[in-house]
Amino acid sequence: MSTNSNSSSVSQQETPEEKLFIALMREDWNNVVKILGQHPMIHDKKLGNMMKATNERSADSSRYDEFLSDTVLHWAITNEAPEFIVEKLVDVIVEVGNDKALETLRANNSRGDTPLHCAATRGSLAICRCMTRVDESLVFELNGEGETPLFLAALLGHQLVFLFLHSICVEREPLLASSIWKRTNGDTILHCTIRRKHFGQYTHNYAASFYK
User: Do you know which InterPro entries this protein is assigned to (predicted)?
Assistant: First the structure.
Protein backbone atom coordinates (compact mmCIF):
# COMPACT_ATOMS: atom_id res chain seq x y z
CA MET A 1 0.00 0.00 0.00
CA SER A 2 2.79 2.41 0.98
CA THR A 3 4.69 1.54 -2.22
CA ASN A 4 1.75 2.57 -4.36
CA SER A 5 1.39 5.76 -2.34
CA ASN A 6 5.07 6.62 -2.81
CA SER A 7 5.03 5.98 -6.57
CA SER A 8 1.88 8.08 -6.88
CA SER A 9 3.59 10.91 -5.01
CA VAL A 10 6.62 10.77 -7.30
CA SER A 11 4.39 10.79 -10.37
CA GLN A 12 2.52 13.85 -9.08
CA GLN A 13 5.82 15.70 -8.62
CA GLU A 14 6.93 15.22 -12.21
CA THR A 15 6.81 18.41 -14.24
CA PRO A 16 5.21 18.45 -17.70
CA GLU A 17 8.72 18.80 -19.18
CA GLU A 18 9.86 15.67 -17.35
CA LYS A 19 6.84 13.69 -18.45
CA LEU A 20 7.31 14.82 -22.04
CA PHE A 21 11.02 14.01 -22.09
CA ILE A 22 10.44 10.52 -20.69
CA ALA A 23 7.65 9.85 -23.20
CA LEU A 24 9.87 11.01 -26.08
CA MET A 25 12.79 8.82 -25.00
CA ARG A 26 10.46 5.82 -24.75
CA GLU A 27 8.85 6.69 -28.09
CA ASP A 28 5.54 6.55 -26.28
CA TRP A 29 3.96 8.63 -29.01
CA ASN A 30 0.36 8.46 -27.84
CA ASN A 31 1.43 9.78 -24.45
CA VAL A 32 3.41 12.55 -26.16
CA VAL A 33 0.23 13.64 -27.94
CA LYS A 34 -1.69 13.51 -24.66
CA ILE A 35 0.91 15.58 -22.76
CA LEU A 36 1.03 18.26 -25.46
CA GLY A 37 -2.75 18.47 -25.40
CA GLN A 38 -2.69 19.10 -21.66
CA HIS A 39 0.22 21.56 -21.58
CA PRO A 40 0.24 24.16 -24.40
CA MET A 41 3.10 26.10 -22.78
CA ILE A 42 5.62 23.34 -23.54
CA HIS A 43 4.81 22.93 -27.24
CA ASP A 44 7.99 24.72 -28.29
CA LYS A 45 10.24 23.48 -25.47
CA LYS A 46 13.65 22.29 -26.62
CA LEU A 47 14.91 18.82 -25.80
CA GLY A 48 17.82 20.31 -23.84
CA ASN A 49 15.45 22.19 -21.54
CA MET A 50 13.39 19.05 -21.00
CA MET A 51 16.55 17.12 -20.16
CA LYS A 52 17.58 19.72 -17.58
CA ALA A 53 14.15 19.42 -15.98
CA THR A 54 14.74 15.70 -15.36
CA ASN A 55 18.01 16.37 -13.48
CA GLU A 56 19.29 13.13 -14.97
CA ARG A 57 21.98 14.02 -17.47
CA SER A 58 23.68 10.63 -17.55
CA ALA A 59 27.08 9.76 -18.98
CA ASP A 60 25.61 8.38 -22.20
CA SER A 61 23.27 11.35 -22.74
CA SER A 62 25.94 13.02 -24.90
CA ARG A 63 24.49 11.06 -27.81
CA TYR A 64 21.58 13.51 -27.70
CA ASP A 65 23.78 16.61 -27.92
CA GLU A 66 23.04 17.35 -31.57
CA PHE A 67 19.32 17.16 -30.81
CA LEU A 68 19.24 19.41 -27.73
CA SER A 69 17.74 22.27 -29.73
CA ASP A 70 14.99 20.07 -31.20
CA THR A 71 11.36 20.62 -30.27
CA VAL A 72 8.89 17.76 -29.97
CA LEU A 73 8.03 18.10 -33.66
CA HIS A 74 11.68 18.05 -34.79
CA TRP A 75 12.37 14.99 -32.63
CA ALA A 76 9.25 13.06 -33.60
CA ILE A 77 9.76 13.60 -37.34
CA THR A 78 13.48 12.84 -37.28
CA ASN A 79 12.98 9.72 -35.17
CA GLU A 80 10.41 8.25 -37.54
CA ALA A 81 7.31 8.65 -35.42
CA PRO A 82 4.35 7.34 -37.45
CA GLU A 83 2.98 9.95 -39.82
CA PHE A 84 -0.47 9.87 -38.21
CA ILE A 85 1.15 10.65 -34.85
CA VAL A 86 2.96 13.69 -36.25
CA GLU A 87 -0.31 14.82 -37.82
CA LYS A 88 -1.97 14.51 -34.40
CA LEU A 89 0.85 16.55 -32.84
CA VAL A 90 0.38 19.30 -35.40
CA ASP A 91 -3.39 19.25 -34.85
CA VAL A 92 -2.93 19.55 -31.07
CA ILE A 93 -0.44 22.39 -31.45
CA VAL A 94 -2.83 24.29 -33.70
CA GLU A 95 -5.94 23.58 -31.61
CA VAL A 96 -4.60 24.43 -28.15
CA GLY A 97 -1.46 26.39 -28.89
CA ASN A 98 -3.29 29.63 -29.66
CA ASP A 99 -0.90 32.37 -30.78
CA LYS A 100 2.14 30.14 -30.21
CA ALA A 101 1.13 27.59 -32.85
CA LEU A 102 2.86 29.25 -35.80
CA GLU A 103 5.87 30.05 -33.64
CA THR A 104 6.15 26.35 -32.79
CA LEU A 105 5.89 25.34 -36.45
CA ARG A 106 8.62 27.86 -37.34
CA ALA A 107 10.97 26.87 -34.50
CA ASN A 108 14.57 26.24 -35.54
CA ASN A 109 16.95 23.58 -34.27
CA SER A 110 20.75 23.84 -34.21
CA ARG A 111 20.92 23.49 -38.01
CA GLY A 112 18.29 26.15 -38.43
CA ASP A 113 15.82 23.53 -39.65
CA THR A 114 12.11 23.98 -39.05
CA PRO A 115 9.90 20.90 -38.60
CA LEU A 116 9.01 21.21 -42.30
CA HIS A 117 12.71 20.95 -43.18
CA CYS A 118 12.78 17.72 -41.15
CA ALA A 119 9.68 16.42 -42.94
CA ALA A 120 11.23 17.18 -46.33
CA THR A 121 14.46 15.48 -45.27
CA ARG A 122 12.49 12.42 -44.17
CA GLY A 123 10.58 12.45 -47.45
CA SER A 124 7.16 12.40 -45.83
CA LEU A 125 4.54 13.83 -48.16
CA ALA A 126 1.80 13.35 -45.56
CA ILE A 127 3.61 15.42 -42.92
CA CYS A 128 4.50 18.14 -45.43
CA ARG A 129 0.85 18.37 -46.46
CA CYS A 130 -0.27 18.52 -42.84
CA MET A 131 2.05 21.42 -41.99
CA THR A 132 1.49 23.45 -45.12
CA ARG A 133 -2.27 23.23 -44.60
CA VAL A 134 -1.64 25.30 -41.48
CA ASP A 135 0.74 27.79 -43.08
CA GLU A 136 1.94 27.53 -46.67
CA SER A 137 4.60 30.19 -46.13
CA LEU A 138 6.63 27.59 -44.21
CA VAL A 139 7.95 26.46 -47.60
CA PHE A 140 10.04 29.64 -47.84
CA GLU A 141 11.80 29.28 -44.48
CA LEU A 142 15.61 29.01 -44.71
CA ASN A 143 17.84 26.93 -42.45
CA GLY A 144 21.39 27.77 -41.40
CA GLU A 145 22.76 26.78 -44.81
CA GLY A 146 20.19 28.90 -46.62
CA GLU A 147 18.26 25.79 -47.70
CA THR A 148 14.48 25.70 -48.06
CA PRO A 149 12.50 22.49 -47.45
CA LEU A 150 12.17 22.35 -51.26
CA PHE A 151 15.95 22.40 -51.59
CA LEU A 152 16.34 19.50 -49.14
CA ALA A 153 13.66 17.43 -50.87
CA ALA A 154 15.50 17.83 -54.17
CA LEU A 155 18.90 17.22 -52.62
CA LEU A 156 17.79 13.92 -51.09
CA GLY A 157 15.82 12.70 -54.09
CA HIS A 158 12.34 12.86 -52.57
CA GLN A 159 10.53 13.48 -55.83
CA LEU A 160 6.91 13.59 -54.65
CA VAL A 161 7.75 15.90 -51.77
CA PHE A 162 9.75 18.15 -54.11
CA LEU A 163 6.91 18.39 -56.61
CA PHE A 164 4.37 19.09 -53.86
CA LEU A 165 6.44 21.83 -52.23
CA HIS A 166 7.29 23.30 -55.62
CA SER A 167 3.59 23.52 -56.51
CA ILE A 168 3.00 25.63 -53.39
CA CYS A 169 5.98 27.85 -54.17
CA VAL A 170 4.75 28.49 -57.71
CA GLU A 171 1.20 29.19 -56.56
CA ARG A 172 2.28 31.68 -53.90
CA GLU A 173 5.18 33.24 -55.78
CA PRO A 174 4.80 32.88 -59.59
CA LEU A 175 8.13 34.68 -60.04
CA LEU A 176 10.17 32.53 -57.73
CA ALA A 177 12.94 34.27 -55.82
CA SER A 178 16.41 32.87 -56.41
CA SER A 179 16.76 32.23 -52.66
CA ILE A 180 14.60 29.10 -52.85
CA TRP A 181 17.00 27.58 -55.38
CA LYS A 182 20.26 28.58 -53.69
CA ARG A 183 22.22 27.93 -50.54
CA THR A 184 23.99 30.84 -48.93
CA ASN A 185 27.28 29.52 -50.40
CA GLY A 186 25.87 29.90 -53.93
CA ASP A 187 25.20 26.20 -54.60
CA THR A 188 21.93 25.70 -56.46
CA ILE A 189 19.53 22.77 -56.34
CA LEU A 190 20.66 21.76 -59.80
CA HIS A 191 24.34 21.75 -58.83
CA CYS A 192 23.69 19.63 -55.75
CA THR A 193 21.38 17.10 -57.37
CA ILE A 194 23.67 16.59 -60.35
CA ARG A 195 26.59 16.13 -57.97
CA ARG A 196 24.63 13.49 -56.09
CA LYS A 197 23.14 12.02 -59.29
CA HIS A 198 19.67 12.54 -57.84
CA PHE A 199 16.61 13.47 -59.66
CA GLY A 200 18.19 15.69 -62.32
CA GLN A 201 15.36 15.51 -64.83
CA TYR A 202 12.89 16.84 -62.24
CA THR A 203 14.99 19.70 -60.95
CA HIS A 204 16.04 20.69 -64.46
CA ASN A 205 12.45 21.28 -65.49
CA TYR A 206 11.73 23.52 -62.52
CA ALA A 207 15.08 25.16 -61.97
CA ALA A 208 14.99 26.33 -65.58
CA SER A 209 12.85 29.24 -64.43
CA PHE A 210 15.73 30.44 -62.29
CA TYR A 211 18.29 30.36 -65.09
CA LYS A 212 16.15 32.24 -67.64
Answer: Ankyrin_rpt, Ankyrin_rpt-contain_sf
DSSP alpha helix (H) spans, the chain: 2-13, 16-25, 29-38, 47-54, 72-78, 83-96, 101-105, 115-122, 125-134, 149-155, 159-172, 189-196, 200-211
Tens digit of each residue's pLDDT (9 = 90 or more) over 175-211: 565 556 667 766 677 656 665 555 555 555 454 444 4
Distance between CA 68 and CA 125 in Å, rounded?
A: 26
- Helix axis angle, 159-172 relative to 125-134, nearest 10°? 20
Residue 178 burial (CB count, 10 A): 9
- Identity of residue 35: I
